[in-house]
Amino acid sequence: MPDIATIVREIAEEMAAAPDRGQVATYIPPLAAVSPRRFGMAVIEADGTAHLAGDAEAPFSIQSVSKVFALTLALGKVGDQLWQRVGREPSGSAFNSIVQLETESGIPRNPFINAGAIVVADMLLAGHAPREAIGEILRFVRALAGDDTIFIDEAVARAEQETGYRNAALANYMHAFGNLAHPIERTLGVYFHQCALAMSCRQLALAGRYLMARGRNPDTGFSIVSPQRARRINALMMTCGHYDGSGEFAYRVGLPGKSGVGGGILAVAPGKASIAVWSPGLNERGNSLLGTLALERLVQRTGWSVFDPG
Ligand code: GLN
What we know:
Helix content: 40-55%
CATH architecture of the largest domain: 3-Layer(aba) Sandwich
Strand order of the largest sheet: 3-2-9-8-7
Largest sheet: 5 strands, antiparallel
Bound molecules: glutamine
CATH topology of the largest domain: Beta-lactamase
CATH class of the largest domain: Alpha Beta
Radius of gyration: 18 Å
Shape: globular
């Protein structure tokens, strides 16, 4: 096997030449304005060796990748009681779908579809003002990455708020079933701000290291979550992290991964590496087209897979 530095560099070169780059999200102007030419990749190995390529240092809107960090925080706060209000099954539906909520009593299928993430945001709000809950998420992500320059893009958060009719519909509907504890404006305020986290591939891969390292932050040695909880979050990423494209992602990449509509993907090779890719053009399921292709090539060339001890 060629060394990982070479593999990452070659994949970035291949992606720069890719003719089909997918469609950039257009539902808010700050995302619509991003060039589909951008591509970044960061691979951080278990020993801390970092391989960066392309736009790996450029901050982008992590959007739904933030649902991993919000879930981790909420599990720390409420423990397994969380599962009374959110399921753990893949939905097979679009990320912003409302259909299953009607027959499933306002309990979202999983924490990574929008409905589930809104319930998780509602849990993070308990006992806090929205500003404090948002601050808690930002502090957590900064601590995970060891980087205090990570920020929330207020223009993105505002645009999410202004156009978030579907998310408001999901929140209202779940509130009607008694599955939200706060006024929807407050819960959505937290959700929209977490979606507006801006991070680079390097920062995102650093923040995801606890998921490849049995729950520990390799910088400090401190436990972020137990090894069992890290495994379980990885299981949810594998089964639900790409919405109705999760089966396809598991088939092609074979690693836990979480996508965002900004074109980012965080993927975890347990014991081996934390990986972030960014390419803003999306496939028809709302997942990064080239990001997925880059990860597929990475695992083909490294042999990384949770289905093979390697
Ligand atoms: N902010 C987006 C939304 O709520 C996040 C969706 C995503 O990244 N898939 O619609």
